[in-house]
Amino acid sequence: MNDTSNHRNSIEQSETDSSKDSQKSASVVLMTYQQQEIKKLYEERLKIQQQYIDELKNELDNLRRHQPQNRRKNRKIWVKITKYLAKLHGSSTYQPRFSAQQVFFSYIGSFIGIGSLAYLSIRSGYPLIAAPFGAAAVLVFAVPNSPLAQPRNLIFGNLLGGIVSILMVNLFGSEPWVMALSVATAIKIMQVTKTLHPPGGAVALVGVMSEAKWAFLFTPVLLGSVVLLICTVIFNNLTPGRSYPQHWL
Question: Do 114 and 180 contact (CB within 8 A), yes or no?
């Protein structure tokens, strides 16, 4: 009887041990599964972080690659700005210099030339003076050696400006855009014919503004230019140190 009970106890003990072993193995399997899941989760996170790091590296490489070009562009822009600002200072060094004698004779000559036109207009009853002759006086008395102040330019530049203005008025009227067209056309024609004279552009503008007729071409444009030329030739050749013109045609 004792043997039977011992045998039963041994069986129960073995069953208990086997159940404990099965529980241990189950717990081990569960822990292994959890560890694998955690490992997968960390691997996925690590992969995402690695991708993000690679993207940052690519962006950094691009910035390093384009940085020298941006620096060169910025340097060029800065150099242009510096050169432009430099023009604001010391610009007087590029302007023509006039002696006291030149200033005095320019003053007297322009006074005589414009005064002659004004008094001849009053005495003769013909309009021999117009606003552009003020600009012409600056050229022929202040810088008589300028290519733009020669007789060819004075006479034909003003004459072409007058012709253009009259044609524009007859064709298109005196609208603002016609004024612009008249000046632009006069400049172009003077350039092509080598008779460029800045007051000629003013003649083209004044002609459209005043709705000029063909009489405008003769008085004041042609006769006024001739009178001013005569005054210029006489005055500049009687003045010490001056000679006019450099050429006639």
Answer: no
Nearest to 136 by CA among 121, 116, 114, 103: 114
Q: How many CB atoms lie within 10 A of CB 143?
A: 15
Q: pLDDT by residue for the chain (249 residues), tens digit each?
A: 555 555 555 655 555 555 655 665 666 666 676 777 777 777 788 888 888 788 888 887 777 776 666 566 677 788 777 777 666 666 667 788 889 999 999 999 999 999 999 999 999 888 889 999 999 999 999 999 999 999 999 999 999 999 999 999 999 999 999 999 999 999 999 999 999 999 999 999 999 999 999 999 999 999 999 999 999 999 999 988 889 999 998
Residue ending a domain, among 38, 67, 94, is 94
Q: Which residues contact 157 (CB under 8 A, 6 or more apart)?
A: 148, 190, 195, 196, 197, 199, 200
Question: What is the token pair recorded at 192?
Answer: 């092509």
Q: Report the number of secondary-structure helices (H) and strands (E) in the chain.
A: 8, 0
Q: What is the 3-state secondary structure (H, E, C) of 34-46?
A: HHHHHHHHHHHHH
Question: Can you give the pTM of this predicted structure?
Answer: 0.66
Q: 74, 94, 114 — which closes off a domain? A: 94
For the chain, the domain total comes to 2
